[in-house]
Structure formats: structure tokens, C-alpha cells
Amino acid sequence: MIIQFITSFIASAAFGIIFNAPKETLVKCGFIGMAGWSVYYILYVRDVSSIVATLVASLVVAIISQFLAKLYKMPVIIFSVAGIIPLVPGGISYNAMRHFVENDYNTAIQLAAKVVMLSGAIAMGLLFSEVIHQLYQKVIRRRKETTALEKD
Amino acid sequence: MEIRTTPTYEIIEVCLLAGKIMLSSGAETYRIEDTMTRIAASYGIHSSHSFVTPTGIIFSMDGNDPTKLIRISERSTDLHKVTKVNSISRQISSGELTAKEALVKLKEIETSNLAFPIWLQIFAAFIASGCFMIMYQGLWTDFLVACLAGGLGFSTLVYLHKLLEIKFFAEFIASLIIGAFAFIAVSYNWGTYVDKIIIGAVMPLVPGLLITNAVRDLITGHLVSGIAKGAEAFLTASAIGSGIAVAFIFL
């Protein structure tokens, strides 16, 4: 399992280089990728369905990315991209495409549906954390407004 | 009403250039629209409309000012530029930069080459391919083969992308080479599982980010750009799939 963590760290940081993330963020990118993949892997080993595991992992990635983006005043995408790279259903979409061109349409459609579900799960995870973030900000602002009113 | 000190065309130009850099560097649609309206607002224009699609940006303000359109023909992922534009937009919002200064700085960013050297990118693809192969439960004995296949595929892609205008063929040939290399390596007993090696090696080419962004755009209501990004992702995926398939047919 430790090997999985290390390889996901290296893979995410390497993707940071391919996507040309700023130098000082590469290690953070690696850590976020590792966090996402370890959540996914631990859930996957415990027989949780891969869609739920992906959803939870991408939620974790998104929350950490939001936090880091606030902390370092950088766009969220830098951290979230590297984080979701290990979760992206690259292998399955490759398999789907391969079955398509081999004229095995039944398997291909099944796999393609799975790709859509998995990428939907990733997007849902990312959006969900954004919604939480917005709600949190709104609540804080309202609280500040009410306290200001009470003072008056 | 506040008095505008900057001419409108300069504001439009700053907004459009910021949007153009962000879009061609792979930022999210909603963030680009947000940045453009924010820049406009901090220069005193509170009602502006931006419409961002993957192939072009339309930006318009209320009143008699002209609507402008910018065409984007090439998109890649360059997060460093996104960061730089973001920090400039922050500076504009806090009133540190005038439109003229912002324009100069944005032009600098547009022409600058902040990318990592090519050899480092190829090395990153090399290492990432091997690591992905391990993450998909491959064998350590296949590690080097997957690395080599991935590095070879990625460098082919980079080289052909400069040579050919059409991205589809660059991706097709890159994955053809990956498939052929993996197949030959396994038939000479250098590797064990062809599938695992190929999946690891194509990961640097796979449009995973594009698929996720497409779904995300669709959910948040950016229907046009969601569909367009989905189409782009589908094209890339089919280029990779058919490249591998051709390799399998001929070998």
C-alpha cells in the first residue's frame, strides 16, 4: 500500500510538470494527488464501489485544494488538477475505445457508460466542495452583518 | 456615478487579453468569466457580459461601446500563466494597477515562455507512465518498459505537434508508437502485460482533465463550452484508441 502512495505522489507531481504548474507548488500537487489516491485506494480495497470511492476522493481533493488556494492565494485549479489526475478514468476510457475499434460494441458501451459515471463523480465532488465553500462564506458574512446590526 | 479615468477600449482590451491567456492556458470557463467581469468592475464598469467558449470569447458592455470578439485557436495546459493572470487580476481589484500597466504586464505574460524545459516534461511523462502502471496493479518488472513507452509516446506527441497542425494525427501516431513498442517489448519477453503497460504509457496523453472539465461545465450551466470540451475529449480519446488498435492489427 505504501508503494501505491509513493507512486501516486510521483505521478501527480510529474503531471504538475507536464501541466506546467509553478515550481513551488509541485510538492503540494504531489501530496494532494497522494491524498486523493489513498482515499480512493483504501475505500476500493474495502469493496466500496469505484464510483462512490471516486466521489469521496475527489471531494477530499477539492476541499484540500480550496484550503491551499486560500492559503497561498492561487487559483484552485492548480491544486485540484494534480489531485484528480490519479482518479481520472484514463484506463477505462482507453479500454472502452479499444473495444469500440475492435467491434466489440457491447463491452465498449458498458465501459463508456462507466467513464461518464466516474467523470461525473469527480465533477460532483469538485462542485460539492465549492458549494460548501460558498455556503460557509455566506453564513460568515450574514453572521458579521447581524453582529454589526446588534452593535448599532 | 463614478468618473471613469481610463478609456473604455483600454479596459476592454485588458479584459479580453486576460481572458485569452487564461483560456489558452486551460483555466475553467466560470473562472475566466468571473475574472473578466471582476476586472471590468474594478475599473468602474459594473455591467459587462462575457461569453466564453473553448474556441472564442465575446465581451460586451452596456451602452454604446463596441462588442469585441477574440478567437482562440490553440489550447494547452499552462497553469503557471493562469497563476500569473490571477495575481494580476488581484492587483487590479485592489487598485494597484492602472489599465495601461496591466496591459503591458499581460502582454509580457502572453509572449513569455514559462514552461519547463522539454526534456524535463518528457522525463516527467516517462516517470508518470511507470507510476501509473504500478497504480493499476502492474508488475515492477514492467516498470521500465512502461516508462520507455510513455516517454517515447509523449516525445512523439510534442515533436509532431510542432510539425503537424492537426492534433488528432499527432495523438494518433503517438499512441500507435506506444502500442507498437509495448507489443514488441512483450513479444520479446521484456514485459509481461501488454494492457497494463499501454494504459500506463497513454496516461500522459489521455484527456482525463478535459472530460472532467466538460462534465463540470455542463453541470454548472455552461452548456456550449461543456459540449465543445466533451467533443474535444472524445476526439482525443478516439485518436488514442484507434492508434492502439492499428498497432494491434498490424503486429
Question: Using only CA atoms, what is the Rg of chain A?
Answer: 19 Å
The number of domains of chain B is 2
Q: What helical percentage do the residues of chain B reach?
A: 55-70%
Report on the biggest sheet of chain A: none
Question: What is the global morphology of chain A?
Answer: globular
Average pLDDT figure of chain A = 86
N-to-C SSE series of chain B? HHEEEHHHHHHHH
| Global morphology of chain B | elongated
How many domains of chain A, as an integer? Answer: 1
Radius of gyration of chain B: 22 Å
Number of strands of chain A: 0
Secondary-structure content class of chain B: mainly alpha
InterPro entries (chain A): ThrE_2, ThrE_Dicarb/AminoAcid_Exp
Family (chain A): Belongs to the ThrE exporter (TC 2.A.79) family.
Pfam family, one (chain A): ThrE_2
Membrane topology (chain A): Multi-pass membrane protein
Notes on the structure:
Chain A: Pfam families: ThrE_2 (PF12821). The complex is a heterodimer of chains A (152) and B (251). Chain A has helices at 2-18, 26-45, 50-72, 76-84, 90-101, 105-151. Chain A is an all-alpha fold and 152 residues long. Chain A has one domain. Chain B is mainly α. Chain B has 2 domains: 8-111, no CATH class; 118-250, no CATH class. In chain B, strands 1-2-3 form a 3-stranded antiparallel sheet. The model of chain B has no long low-confidence stretch (mean pLDDT 85). The chains are: A mainly alpha (152), B mainly alpha (251). Chains A and B meet through α1, α4, α5 and α6 of A and α3, α5, α8, α9 and α10 of B.
